[in-house]
Design brief:
Layout lengths: L1 H8 L5 E4 L4 H12 L4 E6 L20 E6 L5 H8 L6 E4 L12 H22 L4 E5 L25 H6 L3 H20 L3 E6 L1 E3 L9 H10 L13 E3 H13 L5 E5 L6 H11 L24 H6 L6 H14 L11
Parallel strand pairs: 1-2, 1-4, 2-3, 4-5, 5-6, 6-9, 7-8
Helix pairs in contact: 2-8, 3-4, 4-6
Keywords: NADP, Oxidoreductase
Protein name: NAD-dependent epimerase/dehydratase domain-containing protein
Organism: Nyssa sinensis
Length: 339
């Protein structure tokens, strides 16, 4: 019996992942399976394709319960159904609208789903006694922040300047910032354990069938885009590191607050130069001068995660993995590379 008890102690708690069939969500499900999680509730937008999740390594294991729930995060009852089986476990809230196109109705398309969706997920977590919620925020809740001192590297104490974003019709940072602020208010008011992670531009192999916004940044660069990414860039990170970090933040008893997740902070122009050297067959634009005026470089910007034990994948690997994946999935036509 003693041996059985020991085995029982190793059984991982049940977890729910919202936005489970997106770029980060799919990698999180894959990484949870790698870490031995056997009860995973995958919440996906109604009508969206989640079939690739069942092809992930370990998903077909007889001991694994991978349950897909169709739940619009604005539907509180559907969200509750997805979270209900996670008492004593965790919720990874990843779902948040992010479009490649400018929104026609920013409030309805981005802000309300991000904010109210977060509150619905947290309310369900509280109702069903979830131990901890890991909220996937974004560097878009840290920057743009034009008032940040130019001689100081950005860290977790920075918050996006909402007025600056609204005046420039940049609604995604507004949605992520308001959603995270709502999460902290809920956490304080209701005594729910919440930790937030702030990934930079996420790269890596696409497990999902569609092209996601962060990999589209690299694709545009490969196609010769001259967009400097202005104040919406701090650095890049391999998506598998983001998934590992999310699990680390769930499992680490001491984790609290906000965690920047990027393999260093540096100019987008420097990133473009690295990409150009890695894949010289593509017409990558060479930027002159600073693409992010005043941005201070910092190799260990994610010090809080590094201190918890996270090791980052080199950015070069992330770029190469993404390019290979974009090619394999047909998102990079042959005509886009220089002959």
């Amino acid at each position: 019996m003693a041996e059985q008890t020991g085995l029982e102690k190793n059984i991982k708690e049940p977890v729910c992942v919202t936005g489970a069939n997106g770029f980060i969500g799919s990698w999180l499900v894959r990484t949870l399976l790698d870490h031995g999680y056997t009860t995973i509730h995958a919440s996906v937008f109604p009508g969206s394709d989640a079939s690739h999740l069942f092809a992930l390594p370990g998903a077909a294991d007889p001991d694994v319960r991978l349950v897909v729930h169709e739940a619009d995060v604005l539907d509180a009852k559907a969200v509750s159904n997805a979270v209900e089986g996670c008492a004593g476990g965790g919720v990874f809230h990843v779902a948040s609208p992010c479009s490649l196109e400018d929104p026609v109705d920013p409030q309805g398309e981005l802000v309300t789903p991000a904010v109210q969706g977060t509150l619905n997920v947290l309310a369900a977590a509280k109702m069903f006694n979830v131990r901890r919620v890991v909220v996937t925020s974004s560097i878009s809740a840290l920057v743009p922040n034009p008032s940040w001192p130019s001689n100081t590297p950005f860290d977790e104490s920075s918050w996006t300047d909402l007025d600056y974003c609204k005046s420039r019709q940049k609604w995604y940072p507004v949605s992520k910032t308001l959603a995270e602020k709502a999460a902290w208010e809920f956490s304080e008011k209701h005594g729910l354990d919440v930790v937030a992670i702030h990934p930079a531009t996420c790269l890596g192999p696409l497990l999902q069938p569609n092209l996601n916004a962060s990999c589209a940044v690299l694709r545009q660069l490969l196609q010769g885009s001259k967009d400097t990414q202005e104040y919406h860039w701090l650095g890049a990170v391999h998506v598998k590191d983001v998934a590992e970090a999310q699990i680390l933040l769930f499992e680490s008893p001491t984790a609290s607050g906000r965690y920047l997740c990027t393999n260093g902070i540096y100019q987008f122009g420097e990133f473009a130069e690295r990409v150009s050297k890695l894949v010289p067959e593509f017409p990558v634009h060479r930027f002159i001068g600073q693409t992010q005026p005043g941005l201070m470089s910092c190799k260990d910007a994610a010090k809080r995660l590094i201190d918890l034990g996270l090791e980052f994948t080199p950015v070069e690997n992330a770029v190469q993995d993404t390019v290979e994946s974009l090619r394999a999935k047909g998102f990079l036509g042959q005509e886009e590379s220089q002959s």
